[in-house]
Structure formats: structure tokens, C-alpha cells
Amino acid sequence: MRDCVPNIPEHLELLFNKSNTILIKTSPLFDLQAGIEELKHVQGIHIVAVKNEVKELVWLLSKETSPKIKIRSLNFTKTGLEEFNGFFNQPTAAVADYSLAKNFLFEPNAAIMKSGLFVELSVETGTSKLHPNSHLYTSIENKNFPGRKFIIKEVEAYKPGYLKKRFKGSKANITTRNFPENVVQLRKKLKIKEGGKTYLFFTTNLKNEKILLICEKIHSQIDFIIM
User: Fold this and answer.
1) CB-based burial of residue 49 (10 Å sphere; 0-12 exposed, 13-18 middle, 19+ buried)?
2) What is the per-residue pLDDT for 219?
3) Which CATH architecture has domain 9-87?
């Protein structure tokens, strides 16, 4: 933030002479840890997304520093608000559950992806993570979850030759999470067109196996999720 205009860290003393509380709006590109270190007085951060795209970060600063920095992730959609809250990098006894793919797949919204509250999300929603770095969640039952929901129709090992024969010329929506190839590379390699009602998730499971989850999207009313 020292490279921005105005240079907020440089003028913090002046600002706190005028007010005990300061709100700063910044680009969503700012790293949360770096911002906390530079601003020093951060009490809370609001991560604001609209239709699953993070638009801005709002930093709450106070003269009285606090060991706990509250994170609010907010995603405004066409049908409502998805909200999930927690604390930044706080020691916790909570442990995420891990599992192979079950009946349902859940993909966190963009605000939560920015927040880093991945363990808390697993605990609060009663879902299991597929892998520590995949940030995809699964459950036997449909859950109240801040993000996209899918029914898992099939789970396939990543075998490009077989998958090309199966999907060549067909339409599908492709997402990659913790996978060595990106969407463009996969479309070219497997000859899959964009669109359709099928959703393909290329990811890594807890056995470090490269897999494909063939899914159908669940269209449902937004639930309010507040931690």
C-alpha cells in the first residue's frame, strides 16, 4: 500500500489524529497479510464480491489494536447474499475433514477463496475437503454452502486418451483446482467445446491422484451462511 496514492501507511498518525476509526477501500488484488503488516491497526477486513467476482476489500482500522482480525466474506448474487465470517490466521483447534468424493461437490465463492477460511468452512458446513490444496468440498448430503453446488454423477481417473474418446466434440463447463493443466490446455487436448449442462472438475484427491469429477449443477435459492 506504500506504493499507492495516497500513501496510507505514511499518513496513519495524521488520520488517527482526526478519527479513532478509519475505513479504507482498496483493490481486491491486495494481499491480506501484506496489508495487515503495513496498516498495523487492522481490526477487520470485508471481502466484497458481486456474482462471484471479488470487487473490493474494505479495511477497518482502529486506534486500539486487536489480536483478532475479523474477516467477513460477502458474495452478492442475483437471489441473495452469501456470507461467511471468521478470523484471520488465528490458532484454532478446528480440523478440516478430508474424504474421497461423495455424492455432492461444493465450490466456495470467490470471496471465501480470497479469505483463506478453508478449514473453518469445512467445519461449519459439515463438509469434507478433497485435498488440502484443492479447496473443493464434498458430502453425502446436500448442504447449506456459500458457493456453487453440484451432484457428482461420476468420478474418473485422469486418463487423457480415454477422456478424449469420451468427450471429443461434446460441450461442458470445465473448472480446474490443484491440477497441473489449465482449462485452455484441457479443452485443446480433450477436444471439449465450451457450454452445455455438464460440469467437469479436474482436481487432485487426498491420495494425490489426478481425477475428473463429472457433475450436474444444482440450482437453488441462496442460503445465508454466517459464522
Assistant:
1) buried
2) 81
3) 3-Layer(aba) Sandwich (3.40)
